[in-house]
Every structure is written in structure tokens, then in C-alpha cells.
Design brief:
By secondary structure, this protein is an alpha/beta fold. The protein has twelve helices and twelve strands.
């Protein structure tokens, strides 16, 4: 028995995506900047992928800038925009991923003011605090479309309206939403958006910053002027082809996948609550595949290890912060007690998960939790 319940960290490369990539991993190895036939074929493949990514989020292909992944895209927005602007305020939600929060903190050490926007107890950004933030001149705003831990969806469209009224540039990290819920760049009203292939059954090493054509962004990497001059360096053609294929696949099965994972999640959450779990963000809109929970007086890392022994791959929070023993910054921002936050465990479901796996998981976690509770009682 083995079940992978950590799809927000990464997903399996889909067979159809691998098939699309294979020619460019082996036979079609031309450099997309070369003028000979092999290079021209590589360039055509990039153009197709750009169209596929653009179609998923309702933009023009020319708005898609290929990068190595979500971290680079988020840094590109924060640092690339700051390089063109005079120091002002950058406003980010208090629950942003470290690859937004850390570059924003770097700006705060070089003349910028960092404003962290509060969230409520369910993990939704506080619009009153958004209004308060815009009480000061603000140049940059970044609010994720859905949190990677809780899965809570944020009212980015409302924030974007307020940001535009304040003449601020607004970005959203949509890494955890693309492929799970509809994402429309134009409808959201943002100036920039981050996407990542490996969160939607594509390869690692490919992502995109989708940009408003008027965005005055400065490239982080200088060189031969690839990607409209915004990201120099020879393009990773196989990964980008896979990214495009993953986006096309996601568009076709998004609704069915959402319904499937939501059914499994709801079953699991019902069972978790019955054995005493607290589910974080349960009262808010969420992406359909994610549940984040904790049991009082049970350590999250211990629970992850014990569940792994039982054949279930789960997470104790963000994969990018898994080496830290500190309580989740997202949960602390939501006002969760630090002791309970240390027990947090995340399940994120995917296309291959089954009802049988969900039922077996509930049996396994009930057994593990009961054993850990008895051990704790003996220790006391």
C-alpha cells in the first residue's frame, strides 16, 4: 500500500507530457536561437508551448516569459520591478510563499517599506487592511491566488482593483491554482502572474511570469536577450514543451479533476474531524484538492513520519520550508496557537488518488493518532 498525497509540493509527470517532451530530449536537440533547421524546429516548439500556456490563463502568447519555475518568476517581479522604481512601499499578504516574502524583505533593507497585509482566522486576506495599506504611497503589490498550505483562495480581483486605483503594480502567484480552478489573467486585473509546470503534471525546471505588456520590468539575468529580453539564457526546450503540454492537458481535465479531488478531500476531512482534528481554512473558498489539519498535542513532523511508514506521503507544510521546525508562518498569521500550528499536516490530492486510498488513509491515521495519544498520556 502506497499513496502519494503531496501534490502541492510536486506532481507526477503525466505520460502525455513525457511523450511530448521525448523528441526534444533525444533527437530534436537544436538551440532555439540557431538559424538552421534544427534550431527553427526548436523555436517552433517553443512558440507552440507559449500558445498553450497563454491559452490556459487567457493572455496573448507574447505575454508569457519562460523561466525556470515559480521562485524565479516571483523574484523577477519583485526585484525586476523594484529596479525600475523609486523606493516606495511594497505590500504583500502575510501568507506569501518565501520566494515572494524574502525578496520583498530584501527591498526593505534598501529603502523600501514592507507592508504585510493581514488575513482573517480562515486565512482570507483582510480587505480592510488592504485599504489601510493603500493609505500610504504603494508601488508594488503581491497577493497569491491560493495559499500553498491551506489552499485558501484569495480575492485577488478585488485587491487588483484597489491597486490599480492607487497606481500600484500588482502581481499574483497562481502556482497552486492553475490546473485546479479556472484562472483568467484579464479578469483578475493583475499586471503579472506566476505559473509553474511541475505543479500541474509537467516537468520541474519550467515556469512562467505572465506579464502585462506595459510592465516596466528589468531583467534579472543579462545576456543574449532571450524571452523578449527579459530572461537571457538558452531556453530549456524539452521542459518548456512539457510545460505547454501540461497546460493543454490541464485545460481539458480541470473540471473533472476538481470534482474528483474535492470528493476525496471532503471524505477525508469528515473522517479527520470525527477523530478530533482541526481543519484550517475550512470556512473559506479553497482549491479542491487541499486540506491542512492538526491534532492537539501531536507533533506534525512525527505524524508525517508515522504516516509515511504506513504508506502515505503527506507534508508538514510547504515543501520549501520543510527543514524548519518553526510553526507555519501562514497559520501564525491566521492567529492559530503556535502549539497547534506545530502539529499541522497537509494533504494535497491528485489525479491518481482513489476513494480506496482515502478510506485506507482514514484507517491508518486513526490508528497512528490513537497510538501517539496513548504514548503522550503515558509520558505525562
Amino acid at each position: 500500500m502506497s499513496a502519494y498525497f503531496d501534490h502541492n509540493a510536486t506532481t507526477r509527470l503525466d505520460d502525455a507530457v513525457l511523450e511530448a517532451m521525448m523528441p526534444f530530449l533525444r533527437d530534436e536537440y537544436g538551440n532555439a536561437s540557431s538559424r538552421h533547421d534544427a534550431g527553427i524546429r526548436a523555436r517552433k516548439a517553443l512558440n507552440v508551448a507559449r500558445e498553450q500556456v497563454a491559452a490556459l490563463v487567457n493572455v496573448q502568447p507574447s505575454q508569457v516569459v519562460f523561466v525556470s519555475g515559480g521562485t524565479e518568476a516571483n523574484n523577477m517581479f519583485v526585484k525586476g520591478m523594484a529596479s525600475y522604481l523609486k523606493p516606495s512601499q511594497i505590500a504583500v499578504s502575510a501568507i506569501e510563499h518565501p520566494c515572494v516574502m524574502k525578496p520583498a524583505a530584501t527591498l526593505a533593507r534598501s529603502g523600501w517599506k514592507l507592508r504585510k497585509i493581514n488575513v482573517d482566522a480562515t486565512g482570507v486576506i483582510d480587505m480592510a487592511d488592504v485599504e489601510a495599506a493603500f493609505g500610504e504611497p504603494t508601488a508594488l503589490v503581491s497577493v497569491m491566488l491560493a495559499n500553498n498550505e491551506t489552499g485558501v483562495v484569495q480575492p485577488v480581483g478585488e485587491v487588483a482593483q484597489r491597486a490599480r486605483a492607487a497606481k500600484a503594480w500588482i502581481h499574483t502567484d497562481a502556482v497552486q491554482v492553475a490546473g485546479k480552478l479556472p484562472v483568467d489573467f484579464e479578469a483578475l486585473g493583475v499586471h503579472a502572474m506566476t505559473l509553474s509546470a511541475h505543479k500541474m503534471y509537467g516537468p520541474k525546471g519550467a515556469g512562467a511570469l505572465v506579464v502585462d505588456k506595459r510592465l516596466p520590468i528589468k531583467p534579472l539575468v543579462g545576456g543574449g536577450g532571450h524571452e523578449h529580453g527579459l530572461r537571457s539564457g538558452t531556453e530549456n526546450v524539452p521542459a518548456i514543451v512539457g510545460f505547454g503540454a501540461a497546460c493543454e492537458l490541464a485545460a481539458g481535465r480541470r473540471q473533472a479533476l476538481a470534482e474528483h479531488t474535492a470528493q476525496l478531500r471532503d471524505l477525508i476531512e469528515t473522517g479527520l474531524v470525527e477523530i478530533g482534528a482541526t481543519v484550517f481554512g475550512a470556512g473559506a473558498p479553497r482549491i479542491p484538492n487541499t486540506t491542512y489539519f492538526a491534532f492537539q498535542n501531536i507533533d506534525g513532523e512525527t505524524l508525517v513520519i508515522e504516516l509515511n511508514k504506513a504508506g502515505f506521503a503527506v507534508a508538514s507544510g510547504s515543501a520549501c520550508s520543510s527543514t524548519s521546525t518553526d510553526p507555519s508562518a501562514t497559520l501564525l498569521a491566521m492567529g492559530v496557537d503556535p502549539d497547534l500550528a506545530r502539529g499541522a499536516v497537509r494533504i494535497s490530492l491528485g489525479v491518481d488518488n482513489t476513494m480506496q486510498q482515502a478510506q485506507e488513509f482514514l484507517i491508518a491515521i486513526a490508528t497512528v493518532v490513537d497510538r501517539l495519544r496513548r504514548l503522550t498520556a503515558v509520558a505525562v
